[in-house]
Amino acid sequence: MANPYPQVYLGDRIVAAEAATVGVASSAVLYGLSVYTVFPVHVAGAARTAFRLDDHFRRLEESCKIIGIDRFAQEWDYQRFYAAVVEVVGQNAPVEDVFVRATVHVVESIPGTRVRGCAIQVSIFVYDAVPIVPQDGMRLKSSPWRRIPDNAIPSRAKVNGAYVNSVLAKQDAIDSGYDDCIFLDGNGHVCELSAANIFLVRNGTLITPDVSCDILDGINRRTILTLAAEDGIPVVERAVDLTELYIADEVFVTGTSAGAAPVFEVDGRTVADGQAGPISQALRKRHAAALRTDDLHGWITPLN
Ligand code: PMP
C-alpha cells in the first residue's frame, strides 16, 4: 500500500492529503462514477516534465463525454488542467520520478443513477512511481472473468467503477500464483491485462489487439506503435487468439504503471525461451528514453 504525497489538488485548490475526500453520498462513492488517468512525471534536478500530458487530458475529456459527465467540458480546459498539474507537482516538489493521478468525480449527493448536469470535482495527486507488474519477466494467467464489453461499460472510458472487473481478474491471478491476468472477451479473443495493454511478436511482426477489442486505448500502447513503426518493425492491430500468445516469439505489456515489460510465461507455458526477446528489449529501451526526453513527437511537457 502507498500514500499520496502530502499536497493534493481537490476542487479548485490544494489541500492536505487527509482532507482530500469526497462525500459518502456522492455518485463517485455510490456508483464508482468517476473517470481518471495516470501519467508519469520525470524529475531531473529542478526540472520536471510530464509525458503526453495533452493526450491524457484528451482521454479524460473523452471518458467524460462517453459517460455523460458534461460539466467537465463546461468547467475545464487544457490550460486549467495544466495549471493544476503544475501547482500540485510543484507543491510536493518530488525528488524522483512520480506518477500523477487525475480524477473527475461526480460529487452530486444522492442524485439517483443519472449523470447529466451533476456536479463534479477534480482531484489530482502525486505518488511514488512503483510498477504494478514485475519488470524482469512476468507470469500471466488468462482470466475466468470476461472483459466488460463496449456495450456494457466501455473500456475506452477510464471509469473507476469498471475497475471492479480488473480487481476480480487480478486477484484471481494473484491467488493462482501469477503476476497478472489476461482478459478475454466473450469470444475468447485477448483484450488486455488488469491495467495494461498486451503485445506479441511473431516472425518479426508486432501484433496487438485493435482498439475495438474492448481495450483501453492506452497512451503507452500508442507510443509503442509509433516507435515500432519508426524502427521499421511491421505492426498489425487485429483480434488475437489466446493460443497465439502460447506460441509467440515474444510477449510484452505496456502502461504508465506497467512500463514496457516482458512476459515470460502465459498459462504455465514458457514464452519462447523464457527471456526478453530482441524486439521487446529494443522497444522497452526506446520507451524508457521517450518518457524522459523526446525531440521528435512533442510528447514532453515542462512543468516548471
Ligand atoms: N488498460 C487498462 C485497463 C488500464 O487501466 C491501463 C492503465 N491506464 C492501460 C491499459 C494502459 O494505459 P496507459 O498506457 O494509458 O497507461
Figure out the total of helices.
8
Number of domains as seen in the coordinates? 2
How would the global form be characterised?
globular
CATH fold category name of the largest domain: D-amino Acid Aminotransferase, Chain A, domain 2
- CATH structural architecture of the largest domain: Alpha-Beta Barrel
Topology:
Blueprint: E1 7-10, E2 13-16, H1 27-31, E3 34-44, E4 47-51, H2 53-67, H3 71-75, H4 78-92, E5 98-106, E6 120-128, E7 138-146, H5 163-175, E8 180-184, E9 197-202, E10 205-208, H6 219-230, E11 235-237, H7 242-246, E12 250-255, E13 259-266, E14 269-270, H8 278-290, E15 300-302
Parallel strand pairs: 7-8, 7-13, 10-11
Antiparallel strand pairs: 1-2, 1-6, 3-4, 3-5, 4-15, 5-6, 9-10, 9-12, 12-13, 13-14
The structure holds 4'-deoxy-4'-aminopyridoxal-5'-phosphate.
Cofactor: pyridoxal 5'-phosphate
GO molecular function: transaminase activity
InterPro entries: Aminotrans_IV, Aminotrans_IV_CS, Aminotransferase-like, BCAT-like_C, BCAT-like_N, Class-IV_PLP-Dep_Aminotrnsfr
What would you say about this model in short?
Belongs to the class-IV pyridoxal-phosphate-dependent aminotransferase family. The chain has 304 residues and is α+β, with helices and mostly antiparallel strands.
